[in-house]
Amino acid sequence: MINEYKVEIIREPGSNPLTGEISPFEYEKLTIETTSVRSAYVMACATFKMTVRGQQLRFFINGEEYFDDNF
């Protein structure tokens, strides 16, 4: 069964480890239709548009923070 998931991605401020350039806080919101929360996370990782160079990303799916068990 296909469900709609609201995914919010937060990039914490931090520096690029290669250049030292500071990247500010950034926020992106996606709506993803898929069969599971895990699939929504995988699709969000593949489709978000923010540039990330060593900063921490936090994923929230339907309002709850999601932690990938593989990391």
Explain the overall architecture.
A hairpin with a 2-residue loop joins strand 5 and strand 6. The chain has a four-stranded antiparallel sheet with strand order 4-1-5-6, with helices on one face. Strands 2-3 form a two-stranded antiparallel ribbon. With 71 residues, it is α+β, with helices and mostly antiparallel strands. The model has no long low-confidence stretch (mean pLDDT 91). It contains one helix and six strands, in the order E-E-E-E-H-E-E. The longest helix is centred in the middle third of the chain and has 11 residues. It starts with a strand and ends in a 5-residue tail after the last strand.
Q: What's the arrangement of strands in the largest beta sheet?
A: 4-1-5-6
Number of DSSP helices?
1
- Tell me the distance between the termini: 27 Å
State the order of secondary-structure elements, H for helix, E for strand.
Answer: EEEEHEE
Which structural class best describes the helix and strand composition? alpha+beta
Give a short account of the largest sheet.
4 strands, antiparallel
- Helix fraction bin: 10-25%
Low-pLDDT runs of 5+ residues are none
* Percent of sequence in beta strands: 35-45%
Q: How many β strands by DSSP? A: 6
What shape does the CA trace take?
elongated
Q: Rounded to an integer, what's the Rg over CA atoms? A: 13 Å
> What is the average of the pLDDT values?
91
